[in-house]
Amino acid sequence: MNTELLERVRERLAGEGREAALAHGLLAVQLPRDALLDTVRVLKESFGFDLFLDVTAVDWPEREARFDVVFHFYSTRDHVRVRLKTAVTEVDPEVDSLVPLYGSAAFMERECHDMYGIRFRGNADLRPILLYEGFEGHPLRKDYPKDREQPLVRYRE
Fold it and tell me: Signal peptide span per the entry (predicted)?
């Protein structure tokens, strides 16, 4: 683990509404959603985080900012990971897309949109990737009724 690199990243990202802390060998950064794209660009271009690992969300139904959108990045040169986390509300669950920086984000953002309903501003293709067209709701939200029946749709030929 390269703690010196993570410490430099932490110092560079601290401030402007961002909070960064090292825990269990992972740098975790909480940031405002408006700072997401610039922060990811700094990670990629200045610190060599060249691999976008995943994006997911965490549902906190009782919280005003109901969802945390969580991103993980990896540096193949330095073998370290960084986690970014930003909060969004239920009425406006939107963050910037990372497709301009990482092409693989297009598919991962579609999955997160399927499961949680998070919208990614700038991702032109948020069609369902795991669910079928016509599926109603977002099954990983905590208020999704697990016994809900879905409409039947014709199999595409």
Answer: none
Tell me if 107 sits within 8 A of 120, measured CB to CB.
no
Sign, Cα dihedral of 104, 110, 112, 117: positive
Q: How far apart are CA 125 and CA 105, in angstroms?
A: 11
Which residues, in sequence order, are CB contacts of 102 under 8 Å at separation 6+? Answer: 44, 52
Buried b (16+ CB within 10 A) or exposed e, 29-49: bebebebbbebbeebbeebbb
**3-state DSSP helix/strand/coil % of the chain, to nearest 5:** 25, 30, 45
8 A C-beta contact, residue 67 and residue 119: no
Domains of the chain: 3-121 (3.30.460.80)
- pTM exceeding the 0.90 threshold for the entire prediction: yes
What is the tens place of the pLDDT at every residue in 2-34? 788 888 998 998 888 899 988 888 899 999 999
